[in-house]
Design goal:
Blueprint lengths: L1 H8 L3 H8 L3 H7 L50 H32 L5 H5 L3 E4 L8 E6 L2 E7 L2 H8 L12 H4 L5 E5 L10 E2 L5 E5 L4 E4 L4 E3 L11 E5 L2 E4 L1
Antiparallel strand pairs: 1-10, 2-3, 3-4, 5-6, 6-7, 7-8, 9-10
Helix pairs in contact: 1-2
């Protein structure tokens, strides 16, 4: 060992190690390694505790809600198939009828929104007492936003209008085609030219005259002169009782 220290002091440690300790490498190789203990892997231990078991848990009993045909566990399902199918058909039919009724009500409600409102329906018809219109006079009423002419014609006017030849008219119509009662003329007071309102008891033919463009109508509302192409319109009307006129 002293020789090793001496060699190290002279800077010859590498050679001294090889010469002074010739069996050092062999000693290291021959030294046995300690045997390691075997590695044992243990499975994790669960800490969960089961609270319910098949033997100590109460199972709900639904026997009260089951049909009597299926309460017997030993019975074959084919024996009760008809009853079960009948029940299914009844339920399906009931739901189908309920759905159809609901759909019908929904469609009716939707379509009813398209119908006319009450104020419009109230204006759809107008009742007129004919006793308020003297003979030979014309009265104007408002119906559906348009002027309505009601004329109580005299016997002379009726005779004159019946004597007119329809072939000579621009819009050929006889007087009987335009009135239901010869005494009463019911027409709309809207000129067929450009929609102006004619003046009653005026014009060359004693009926109606439109001052806008000079259209002349007779006492039957037929165009006799001027640019208007058609006769004055006759709305739907009826006489529901004596002395009463309903238009619309």
């Amino acid at each position: 060992m002293q020789s090793v220290v001496r060699a190290a002091s002279l800077g010859q440690l590498a050679r001294a190690s090889a010469s002074a300790v010739p069996s050092a490498t062999a000693a290291v190789k021959d030294t046995p390694l300690p045997t390691a203990a075997p590695l044992v892997v243990q499975a994790p231990v669960s800490s969960q505790v089961r609270c319910y078991h098949a033997g100590n848990m109460d199972v709900p009993d639904f026997t009260y809600y089951r049909r009597s045909a299926v309460k017997d566990p030993t019975a074959k399902s084919s024996e009760t198939a008809q009853d079960r199918m009948a029940f299914s058909y009844v339920m399906a039919g009931g739901f189908g009828l309920g759905g159809a009724y609901g759909a019908k009500a929904l469609v009716n409600q939707f379509i009813s929104t398209w119908s006319a409102s009450q104020d419009v329906l109230a204006m759809a018809k107008i009742e007129i007492k004919l006793a308020d219109i003297p003979e030979g006079k014309n009265m104007t009423f408002k119906w559906r936003g348009k002027p309505l002419f009601i004329r109580h014609r005299t016997a002379q006017e009726i005779e004159i209008e019946n004597g007119v030849d329809p072939a000579t008219l621009r819009d050929p119509q006889t007087d009987s085609e335009r009135v239901k009662d010869a005494e009463w003329l019911v027409i709309l007071g809207v000129c067929t030219h450009l929609g102006c309102v004619p003046i009653a008891n005026a014009g060359e033919f004693g009926g109606y005259y439109c001052p806008c463009h000079g259209s002349h109508y007779d006492a039957s509302g037929r165009i006799r002169k001027g640019p208007a192409p058609l006769n004055l319109e006759v709305p739907f009307y009826e006489f529901p009782e004596e002395g009463m006129l309903v238009v619309g």
